[in-house]
């Protein structure tokens, strides 16, 4: 897919190996005041191995940014830094202009949600998993809202199912619905449809690109995908 606004932020060398961070879609002219998440020279080194190298990028409100790299280039490591699941070796992440180290981790991760490649669900029902985030804040989640979220991730009627009986693709979509239940202002998607078949991928992607609700409609998204090598003829 070509960048909608023709802006390629970082075409190479942001992550080890061939890589790219591209703005796929946005609304408006993206003034500086609309920046919701920003990194400055963000890096992470573990055991002498560079996982993320010197990334400086801005994410505006209502903007979709794609990180497309070969497998093993550091996409997951980059996203984990953005909501502080991991700590950077150097560099800074700002959320709404504030150093995110000044924000309580639980609050930060509610506002900057992440859906990982592998779904990590809690024992119990699908509905209990989706309601987990609001419940941690002392808030209830109406059955109607759970049903709406399940419809958004193409799992209508799954609320009472035990997560132990889900397929990999179904578990991945429940993980996505659980993240959406927190009404995040930024949603980090680490190959969130990798376990889905092609039809389900298209359906989920369409629904995600047209989020409903006043909060969801303002959401920014950062999504990763694998850049594959072209086959030689």
Quick take:
With 233 residues, the chain is of the alpha/beta class. The protein contains seven helices and ten strands. A six-stranded mixed β-sheet has the order 1-2-5-10-9-8, with helices on both faces.
Unreliable runs: 1-18, 211-217, 228-233
Strand order of the largest sheet: 1-2-5-10-9-8
Rg over alpha carbons: 18 Å
Give the amount of beta strand, in percent: 25-35%
Average pLDDT rating = 80
Class by alpha and beta content: alpha/beta
Q: Based on CA inertia axes, which overall geometry fits?
A: globular
Which percent range fits the helix content? 25-40%
**Could you spell the SSE succession in H and E letters?**
EEEEEHEEHEHHHHEHE
Number of helices: 7
Structure description:
This protein is of the alpha/beta class and 233 residues long. It is 26% helix and 27% strand. It contains seven helices and ten strands. It has helices at 75-82, 105-111, 126-130, 132-136, 143-152, 168-180, 198-209, and strands at 8-10, 20-25, 35-46, 49-60, 64-69, 90-95, 98-99, 112-115, 186-190, 220-226. The strands form two sheets. It has a six-stranded mixed sheet, sandwiched between helices. Strand 6 and strand 7 (98-99) form a beta hairpin. Helix 5 (143-152) crosses helix 6. It is globular. The protein starts with 7 loop residues before the first strand and ends in a 7-residue tail after the last strand. The model is unreliable at 1-18, 211-217 and 228-233 (pLDDT under 50).
């Amino acid at each position: 897919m070509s960048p909608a606004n023709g802006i390629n932020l970082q075409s190479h060398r942001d992550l080890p190996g061939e890589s790219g961070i591209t703005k796929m879609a946005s609304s408006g002219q993206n003034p500086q005041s609309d920046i919701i998440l920003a990194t400055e020279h963000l890096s992470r080194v573990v055991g002498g191995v560079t996982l993320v190298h010197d990334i400086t990028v801005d994410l505006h409100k209502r903007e979709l940014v794609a990180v497309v790299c070969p497998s093993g280039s550091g996409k997951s490591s980059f996203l984990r830094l953005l909501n502080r699941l991991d700590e950077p070796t150097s560099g800074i992440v700002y959320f709404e202009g504030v150093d995110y180290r000044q924000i309580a981790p639980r609050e930060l991760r509610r506002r900057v949600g992440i859906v990982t490649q592998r779904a990590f669900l809690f024992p119990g029902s699908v509905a209990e998993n989706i309601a987990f985030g609001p419940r941690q804040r002392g808030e209830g989640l109406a059955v109607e809202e759970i049903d709406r979220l399940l419809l958004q991730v193409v799992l209508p009627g799954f609320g009472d199912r035990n997560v132990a009986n889900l397929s990999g693709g179904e578990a991945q979509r429940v993980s996505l619905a659980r993240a959406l239940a927190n009404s995040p202002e930024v949603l980090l998607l680490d190959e969130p449809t990798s376990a889905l078949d092609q039809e389900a991928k298209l359906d989920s992607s369409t629904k995600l690109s047209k989020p409903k609700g006043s909060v969801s409609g303002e959401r920014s998204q950062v999504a990763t995908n694998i850049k594959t090598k072209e086959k030689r003829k």
